[in-house]
Amino acid sequence: MRTQVAIVGAGPAGLLLSHLLDRAGVESVIVETRSREYVEARIRAGILEQSTVDLLRDNGLGERLDREGDVHRGIYLQWPGERHHLDFTELVGRSVAVYGQTEVTKDLGRARDAAGQQIVYEVADTAVHDLETDAPFVTFTRDGETVRLDADVVVGCDGSFGPSRAAVPNPQTWERIYPYSWLGILADVAPSTDELIYAWHPDGFALHSMRSETVSRLYLQVPNGTDVADWSDDRIWSALSARFALDGWTLNAGPITEKSVLPMRSFVQQPMRHGRLFLAGDAAHIVPPTGAKGLNLAVADVALLAPALAALVRDEDSTLADTYSDDALRRVWRCTHFSWWMTTMLHTSTDPFDARLQLAQLRWVVSSEAAARELAENYAGLPIRF
Ligand SMILES: Cc1cc2nc3c(=O)[nH]c(=O)nc-3n(C[C@H](O)[C@H](O)[C@H](O)COP(=O)(O)OP(=O)(O)OC[C@H]3O[C@@H](n4cnc5c(N)ncnc54)[C@H](O)[C@@H]3O)c2cc1C
After folding, report:
1. Which of these is catalytic: 178, 289, 324, 347?
2. Quick one: pLDDT at residue 386?
3. Average pLDDT in the 183-202 region?
4. Quick check: 21 pLDDT over 90?
5. InterPro entries recorded for this chain (predicted)?
6. How far is CA 84 from CA 133, 201, 247, 372, in A?
7. Per-residue pLDDT reduced to its tens digit, 268-289
8. How many domains, in total, are found in the chain?
C-alpha cells in the first residue's frame, strides 16, 4: 500500500488529522488496532473548548454538534456550604460545549466515509520504520497477513500506549503520577445541574458533568488501586450526595450504565517529531482530566500539524513542519500547568495544611475577578496558535 501520510491510530487526533489533510488535498491511510464499533463507543472526554468547536465548525463538522451539543457559559466551584458560578462568557467572552468524545468520533467517522477514506481497523503488530529517510513506512498484520504501508510521512496518533512514542530516540520526558484516581460513572438520569460542578470536599473531590438531557457523568476521587467491584451503586450515590451536599439542592440518582477507574497522570515527551515521524495527541502528552484538556490538546496538535504536513508533502516546504514540535509544545505545557493546577487545587490529601491552602485558593478564584478570569481563559481555551 502507498499513501502520502500514514496515520497510526483512529482516535480523535488521527481521524481529525486525516479529515484536515483531505481538505488540503493530501491523501492519508489510518491503521487502528481496535474495531470501529469499539473506537466509537469508548467513553472518555466530553468538554470541547471554544477553539475546538470553531475548528470543527469551520471544517464541516459542526452540524450535529450545533444541534445536539450544549453550550455552557461556565462552571460551578463548590466547597462545603458554598457553591459559586464562574461565568466564562462574561469574564472572557468565550464558552465551552458539552459534546461527548464518542459523538466527535462518530461525526469524524461519517465524514471520512463520505470522503472515501481508507481506515484499516483491527490490525496487530503495528511498527514504524525508516523514519530518518524520505521513505518511511508502517507495517502491520491483518487477518494473519503482513502489510507494508509506504508513505512520505508517518504520524503517531496512537495514544498513550501505542508504539510511535517509543520510536523517538532519546526523548526528554516528564511525568507526575498523582496519588489518587477518578471513579467515573455514566447514569441514565437527568443532570441535577445546568453546568458542571467541581466540588472540593474533605472526603475527596467530586465532579458532576453530563452527556445529554437524560445522561449524567459523575466522578469521585478515590485512592489509587481502587477496585470498581468495591463500589456498589448505592455506595457511589451516597458518596456523591455527601460530597455535593448543599442546602436546598438534591442530586438525582438513577441507573448506572458504566463504571470505571481512571488513574491521574501528567506526562510530556519532547520533541514531538523525529525525522519523518510526527507525534500528536496522547501519543506525546497526557494530562489529568480535571482541566478537560486531553481531547482539546489532541485537536490543537493536529490543527497545527495538518497545514505543516500539507506544505511538506505537497510543496516540499518544511518551514511549518520544522517548527511544529515547538509550536505544539508551547500550548501543551500551558495546558499541562492548568491541568496540574486544577487537579492539585481540588483533590484532597491527608495534609490539613494543604486543605487550608486549597480553600484559600478556591475562595480567591471566586472573589477576585482577575483570578476568575485566569481560570476562565484557560478552561474555555486559548487560541490554537497560542
Ligand atoms: C480511559 C481514559 C478516560 C479518559 N477520560 C477523560 C475524561 O473523562 N475527560 C477528559 O477531558 N479526557 C479524558 N481522557 C483523555 C482524552 O480522551 C484523550 O486525551 C483523547 O482521547 C486523546 O485523543 P488521541 O486521538 O490522541 O488518543 P486516543 O483517543 O487514545 O486514540 C489513540 C488510538 O490509537 C489506537 N492505537 C493504539 N495503539 C495502536 C497500534 N499499535 N496500532 C494502531 N492503532 C493503535 C488506539 O486504539 C486509539 O484508537 C481520557 C483518556 C483515557 C485513556
Report:
1. 289
2. 80
3. 98
4. yes
5. FAD-bd (IPR002938), FAD/NAD-bd_sf (IPR036188), RIFMO-like (IPR050641)
6. 56, 15, 14, 11
7. 999 999 999 999 999 999 999 9
8. 1
Establish if 277 belongs to a structural domain: yes
| CATH number assigned to the domain comprising residue 38 | 3.50.50.60
Q: Is 198 a catalytic residue?
A: yes
Provide the domain limits for residue 110: 5-71+97-174+265-346
User: Mean pLDDT score of the chain, rounded to an integer?
Assistant: 97
Q: Are 339 and 293 in contact (CB under 8 A)?
A: yes
pLDDT of residue 43 exceeding 90? no
Place of cell 440518582: 253
Cell numbers for 165: 512514542
Which ligand 1 atom minimizes the distance to the CA of 158? 34
Whether 29 is in a domain gets the answer yes
Say whether 324 is catalytic.
no
Among protein residues, the one whose CA lies closest to atom 50 of ligand 1: 44
Cell of 194: 445546568
Task: With beta carbons less than 8 A apart as the criterion, state whether 96 and 50 touch.
Answer: yes
The predicted pLDDT at position 54 comes to 97
Task: For residues 374 and 338, give the distance between their C-alpha atoms in angstroms, rounded to a whole number.
Answer: 10
| Cα-Cα-Cα-Cα dihedral sign, residues 311, 317, 319, 324 | positive
d(CA 245, CA 78): 10
Q: Is the peptide bond before 383 cis (omega within 30 degrees of 0)?
A: no
The predicted-structure confidence for 52-102, as pLDDT tens digits, reads as follows: 999 999 999 999 999 999 999 999 999 999 999 999 999 999 999 999 999
Which atom of ligand 1 is least distant from the CA of 293? 11
Residue 214 domain-assigned (yes or no): no
HSE at residue 75, side-chain half, CA atoms within 13 A, is: 29
CB 76 within 8 A of CB 85: yes
| Percent helix / strand / coil, the chain, rounded to 5 | 40, 30, 30
Answer yes or no: is 148 within a domain.
yes
Q: If we measure between CA atoms, which residue out of 380, 303, 230 comes closest to residue 24?
A: 303
Confidence at residue 385, expressed as pLDDT on a 0 to 100 scale: 85
**Mean pLDDT, to the nearest integer, of 340-348?**
98
